[in-house]
TrEMBL record:
<protein>
    <submittedName>
        <fullName>Glycosyltransferase</fullName>
    </submittedName>
</protein>
<dbReference type="InterPro" id="IPR001173">
    <property type="entry name" value="Glyco_trans_2-like"/>
</dbReference>
<feature type="domain" description="Glycosyltransferase 2-like">
    <location>
        <begin position="357"/>
        <end position="468"/>
    </location>
</feature>
<dbReference type="Pfam" id="PF13692">
    <property type="entry name" value="Glyco_trans_1_4"/>
</dbReference>
<dbReference type="InterPro" id="IPR029044">
    <property type="entry name" value="Nucleotide-diphossugar_trans"/>
</dbReference>
<dbReference type="GO" id="GO:0016740">
    <property type="term" value="F:transferase activity"/>
</dbReference>
<dbReference type="Pfam" id="PF00535">
    <property type="entry name" value="Glycos_transf_2"/>
</dbReference>
<keyword id="KW-0808">Transferase</keyword>
Amino acid sequence: MGLFLPRLLWQGVYMLSGGQQDWTVFDAAWYFKRYQDVLTVLGVAGPQDCEAFYTAHGTVLRHSPNPYFDEDWYLTRYPHVASAVVAGLHASGFDHYCTTGLLTHNPHWLFDEQFYARPLAGQASGGHHDYRNGYDHYLRVGDGQCLAGSWFFDPTLALASGVERQGQLGPYSAYVSMVAPQRQAGSPLSVYFDPAWYVQAYPDVAQQIAGGVWRCALHHYLANETPTHYNPNAIFSEAFYASVNCDVAEALADGRFRNAYEHFLTFGLKELRRPSASVDLEAYSHHTSVRQDLEQGGCRDIFAHYVLHGGKPTQDHTFLQESEGVARALYQEMCRIKAPLILADRLDFSTGSPDLSVIMVAHNLFAMTLVALSSLRANYAGGIQVILVDSGSTDGIRQIEKYVRGLDIVRFDGNIGFLLGCNAALEKVSSPITLYLNNDTELLPGAIANMLARFQSEPGTGAVGGKLIRTNGLLQEAGSIVWRDGSVQGYLRDQHPGVPEANFVRSVDYCAGAFLAVRTDALRQLGGFDTRYAPAYFEDTDLCLRVHAMGLDVVYDPAIVIMHYEYGTSGLISGASMIARNQVLFRTTHAAYLRSKSLKNDRMTIRARSCAGVRGHILFVEDRMPCRFLGAGFARSNDIVHAMVELGYQVTIYPVFISDDTRDEVCRAFPDRVEIMHGRDMAGLEEFLKDRAGYYDTLWIARTHNIDRLAPILQNCADTLAGCTIVLDTEAIATPREYARRVLYGQAGEQSEAEALRHELRHLFMVDQLVAVADYEKDVLKESGFQNISVLGHQQRVRGGQPGWAARQDILFLGALHDEQSPNMDSLRWFVAEVLPLLAPLLPEGVRVSICGYVGPDVDLSAFRQNPAITVLGRVDQVGPVYDRHRVFIAPTRYAAGIPFKLHEAAAHGLPSVVTDLLARQVGWTPGQDLLCAAASDPQAFAQCVAQLYNDSAVWHRVRDNARERIQREHSPQDYRTRLAAILAPSGRSSLGGQQVGGFVVDDPAA
């Protein structure tokens, strides 16, 4: 029966055929080839007799029924299964896997169910019921898409190593289907295992492979019976990792991991633990080039990056700086190559009503000018007026109108230079925006559209510039600085364009004239460039300062990216004497402006990079970049950052832990004027603060546990932070939540709640102001001896136009699931196990429960996915449509802290809620009016509340309307900004600067 139970279980679903991978069936043809030597001796004539032989004898011999399941490995890897087979509870390991282990065990040494499921954890269920488990999905879909099914099988490397696809088989299926063992060391199948090193390090294994005991080095590593005796590569040491990590040694002793490397790949890698004594992943992660590679998806993780780069990242830009001469020559050559293609394409700028006017001055450089014009045309499909000033050219520029249609040409017999040429072209401008654009530039995608959008979104902007990148790939400038002596400096020159400091919008002194867009009416009012600076130098700087004097802003926008040959258009005059002459003129003309500027000093660059106009500078420290989709208080932090920017503050976000999210994803989550220190973590915070001494007016620390982490840094940076107000936003006091969880699970221990709270708050004496999320938490802080406490909850805008009761269906749970111990995971398990079975007879047929929100990489939702009454939506980009289509929101929380943001968000979207009495107390709403609630200990009452809200239209509308009214009254964005402004108002106190401690009464600060 053991053989046929899997067949009967899946009968009629799939049958094995050419190119069809199915782990549930017996593959007679493969079986005969794989075990031909044994079968021939025992008288099995051909494939037609194999299934009967397998049923009678093959399971005892530990034979595999098909290439996708490894019987011998399975029984070795799971000893309890082998014992069950011996005891007669299962006919074979294959029988166990098909009937019991398909969701919890791995079928083959090259596939890992949890590894494969992690990237899909936050995705919608879709048709998950069409697949029996992750392995089924992998064989039918993932393998064909060249997805990785384990740490140790990279399909790309497998194909590169010589694995050949056979028909419709993917790389994995092709590899495991090979009957002839690969006994040579072979090319690596994964960056995480080095077969060549392995056979050299363990020559006895090499002999066993040659003797046919093992298929290959990787097979031995993953299937041997003493896994802690072997290292997978030269970088990881089993002995070292287990010896320095006590939790690992305990886990190995308990049998939770096969070896220390399994723990490292699952947990230690993300925690940046050392894989061996000589490898420091945490230090390695601080290299700029490493962070950029990981952000761009160049490697799966930092360990893989270390392996592939031999632990030697290339962060030094010296080579790029020294190669600029070569880069410039190559750029010129590429222009000459592109020119004939552009000529054949026949550029056309003909337009009746242009969106912008471009002034370009050209003195020769025909090929380079064509490339610039081609780049401009390709960059923007709308109407562009191009006014080309031919400044005494002697090459193809003299006849450029033959090759480019729609140009307005202004010609001079001699080279009059950029300044006078631009002024001569100004009278021809016919659009509201004028762009000065050098003819030695190339625009990267979106430059023109982003520039126009900046003017449209900020009416007070008079001029806009972008990120100038030289031909060697390094920055020319990210906006520019004017010093008090009238000298100028391109900010971040010679730095990589991807550094965080170059990638946020700033108001600046000026932007270079290579790409400088100005409102035409302002430009005409100013008369263009000041001719006193003719022929060159300081004319663009002077123009921007005169724009400032009109009360308009000059903005650097990193979304505008320009490749610039630099100095490619200079030819009329150059030299120190002209620079010195014009600097004196500039200094005299703008004496009043310059008095507000700093003396030139490298340590003042960070303050000088932005011109005056911001209310203050705030450093916002959070666990990670607070994107809204993360939930768990991060949405509130995101709102706070937005409100700070709306109040006029310059905000820098600095994470305690390096973010797993891409830089583009993070940047989209915040206003573009926020400086996002992506790729940084707490290890670099002290140096960061010292480099920016005196820059920040406010240090905003989110969450009480982060003041613990930062306490030594704050002590070491006391002089750096003198005059800086330190604010701790508790977000949610964790002790009551954690203590409730321990009581719920019978793990309270000997420490009392009061002792735990005292420990949590032990470092709060270091800060000037405290912020609580609710009045009840403010009371907890007051009772602990603290004063100067403000309350800042949530902000919400009530959404209009949502559908009514009849147009909705199903039940929604929305919340982040960061880890298996989170309150949300506990509440889901309780609801599904205790409440959901009681709901079926109370609701219409077919009502489902949707689980929506961020899912952590180590969270296992397989049990929920298999439940036919549950749909796992995972993370979604827009929550509005999700709220709109559901009828009831549930929050079955049994322990929590702070105030549930999700409850306010659901109410703002017009979705009424059923919550536990705990949340009703925390939010302060009236049960039966603003929400329905039941005790977390009474699943029957909770089920009845859900059914009442779901079935009764009158109750539904009453609760929804009351909750919306409370949101409107208590959580308006305007009131929110007013409360935040009061918290940020200058107080003249600094707990670390030698002045009075921020008004707190603390019985024992050293506690």
